[in-house]
Design goal:
It contains 16 helices and no strands. The protein is mainly alpha-helical. The radius of gyration is 25 Å and the shape is globular. The two termini are 18 Å apart.
Length: 401
Amino acid sequence: MRQDVRGQHVPALDGVRGLAILGVLASHILPALADAFRTPWAWDTAAWTHAGASGVDLFFVLSGFLITGILLDTRDSPDYWRSFFGRRALRIFPLYYAFLAIMYWRNPPDGRWWTFWLHLSNWRRDLGVSSNVLTWHLWSLAIEEQFYFLWPVLIRLLPRRRVGLACLAIAAVSAAARGAACFQGAGVETLHRMTPLALDGLALGGFLAWSLREAPGLAARLRQLAPAILALAMLAMWGLGRLPLPFPAAFAAGRLVVSIGGGALVLLAAAADGPGRIGRVLSTRPLRWMGRYCYGLYLLHPIVVVKGTIFLRGLVPRLPAAWLFPAWSLSVAVGFFGSCLLAAVSWRLIEAPCLAARRFFPYRPAARPAVPPQPHFPSARPGAQSAEAPSAAAARAESVG
């Protein structure tokens, strides 16, 4: 039994995107302001936002869930490759390459500029100190693009019944490889950005999408457990932050915990029988708005953060002490709403016009062979009663049992 959810828009999933990008913005804006203001309360506030960086892993879970669902629903379509890659290109490439062109026009690229243009920037060792600091965050988009290129091949080649097991195996291997790399002394940047070490969230999201279509009983059971799983994941994250573990070890374990908790959140948001309490919170208009513009928010917010920090470093030392907190509060608002404004403009000028062209790449279901009509009752077919009545009775008995 398959549950076809293609074409259904779930508002709460927009809210999951909004929650993820809100965490990312907080984890970038507040530490940058703490570096500019250099006051104890600014540093204390920034310390609370470290968990917001987990928004990237929540994005990975949601992306794995949505992309795997699309691929499973269209895998037998004659337009499988053309539709998927055409729609992905229209969604990702226009704003991404416009951003790169503007960034590198203002600041010429270094010797490995091609890693950004080919979505391989997460493999750079010097990503954090590359020639243009405004492109350092593109590592996560690189992982997403590599996933988009490889995942359709896996879904198309594997039998449907094997997809779920493959997703679980990939998640387990990725988490184990991250733990092994941590044990071998790998730094947080390596654990964070290397594609093989960051696949557990994407794969777990894919497993949930598969279960909704191929194992609805399992999906229903997982949804019943989802509130408890989400609560345990949050408790585990709180506990990891208080254990005397080296930061790389805490991060290696924390990414898996976030992926599991994120999967529970996605299941609750995508509930087929209507949103529960969590789904209603995620369906609120502000979160849905941020979810709609999350791509532009993620891609463009470093412009506001970096430029604003440079400006504040020159201004803050000249401010009286009594003005520091109002100035900090105003800076938070400018950073947040300035990023939202940039995202809204990019949506109107670039993203929406390009997305309108997706009508040339429709998702079409595979054509099914015509089945000749058969009489409803076996006895209506000549000679069928003696041959088929026992099997029909057995089927009825099996269904009752």
